[in-house]
Amino acid sequence: MKDQVRVRFAPSPTGPLHVGGLRTALFNYLFTKQHGGAFILRIEDTDQKRYVAGAEDYIIKALDWCHIPADESPTNPGAYGPYRQSERQDIYTAWAHKLVQQGSAYYAFDSNVELEALRKERETNGQTFVYNFNNRATLTNGLNMSEASVQQRINSGDAYVIRFKAPHNRLLKLQDQIRGTVSIDCNTLDDKILYKSDGMPTYHLANVIDDHLMKITHVIRGEEWLPSLALHVLLYEAFGWNPPEFAHLPLILKPSGNGKLSKRDGDKLGFPVFPIDWEGEIPVKGFKGAGYLPEALINFLGLLGWNPGTEQELFSLTEMTKAFSLSSVNKGGARFDIEKLNWFNQQYLAKMAPSQLAPILKKSFPFLNNFPESQLNKVVALTQDRLVFIDDFWSASGYFFKAPNSFDEKALKRIARAETSSLIDRIIAVLSTYDETASTTLQEYIKNWISSNNIGFGAVMQPLRLALVGDLKGPDVFDIITILGRKEACQRMAFLQSKL
Ligand code: GLU
């Protein structure tokens, strides 16, 4: 029987989750759900200096808002916990020492001052210092000391790190689900630190141990981790473990296509780069606070790097889960086109059931709570395709709640003719005489009246629209009258007349 698919999203809690991280989480989610697998959230918080309080909570809330919650997480643990690396220290310590015992890694006592001096010296010669097969025999480490002196230094409390002994003269052929075979010459690797002098593992060690112990079958992560793949595969080999499959996702690029979209780009480019609002020391607005729907964001992010191979652009999470495949993820970077995201948002707002959209609108516009539910749903149905953001609701529908109190000069000029005022009297009269129990609709009734009196459709519709909406655009005039009522429509006509 094949192992159950298990993937993990493994962010470091260093601040609000960037949209790039969210895309990684989404691709993990899509892949695992398609295979009936589990989605694990592991918090990689071994770097205490970069730890930011509130970040873990933010990550969990952001995934929830996007409807892609983890099946196992620090707050909802499964059988492979703890799910915070800071709580797994003993596990890493034991495995790190095992690597030393078997000769795959070694203790190194070189002080920062010594290493810095070596770096400087190399730099002045135009070279870079690399701790590796070339010089490890000349440095202060366990490879060049007796076991007894190593023990003695450790026992006396000397600071040490554990370094991986990278192989010499070996060509590695690594497999990536998106990039195919990646060849790495091990002579280009350095002897990476696995275990730090503060007793904490580095990312590489903790990540590999956890992926193994948490039975992760597929590691799907950002392209920036591709350079670490060789070390990770070598670590699996050293531990005698089968490595998982790897897939490195393409970068997300700035809208210009030049360079990676960074956390700071939100401020610079004027759009959010975080899913939900961040309430840290310096609060930052997220997509949620800026009026985006999670469905739109997720749909947009899904197509950042993944190509469904068809013309289809609108995907629900379920549809995307069915259609997704790692083999149709591109290698090249994906441009973050905010205009495209706005288009998705407009599409999703237009598609939503009015009764579903109304409660969201009420949050931004509390006065709507005093408006009859069925009326509100009608207004929403009529105007929702004009919204790009939730906040556009007022500019698109305000006239349903507040009669226009002034008119644009240009619009007034467009409708003003010698007979406009008397025509308004006639429109008011005909609107008032309509019999609501009749079999003809109001629209048919007015249209018949227009044609039997030879007035001209535009000559009636334009002043009518201007009076009702305060503008020469908007949805169908008869739909508007149905919602406002004929009495209100007549009052608005009279007001327009007073302004001619
Ligand atoms: N903690 C790493 C990060 O912050 C995880 C990388 C990985 O998925 O291996 O992105």
Please mark out the parts with pLDDT under 50 across 5 or more consecutive residues, or reply none. none
CATH superfamily of the domain at 6-74 and 205-251: HUPs
Strand content: 5-15%
CATH arch. level architecture of the domain at 6-74 and 205-251: 3-Layer(aba) Sandwich
Helix proportion range: 40-55%
- In this structure, how is the largest beta sheet organized? 3 strands, antiparallel
**Which outline best applies?**
elongated
Radius of gyration (CA) equals 32 Å
How far from one another are the termini? 81 Å
Bound molecules: glutamic acid
Task: Let me know the average pLDDT.
Answer: 96
> What kind of assembly state do the chains in view correspond to?
single chain
Number of helices: 20
Number of strands: 11
- Strand pairing plus helix content: what structural class? mainly alpha
Strand order of the largest sheet: 3-4-7
CATH fold descriptor of the domain at 6-74 and 205-251: Rossmann fold
CATH class of the domain at 6-74 and 205-251: Alpha Beta
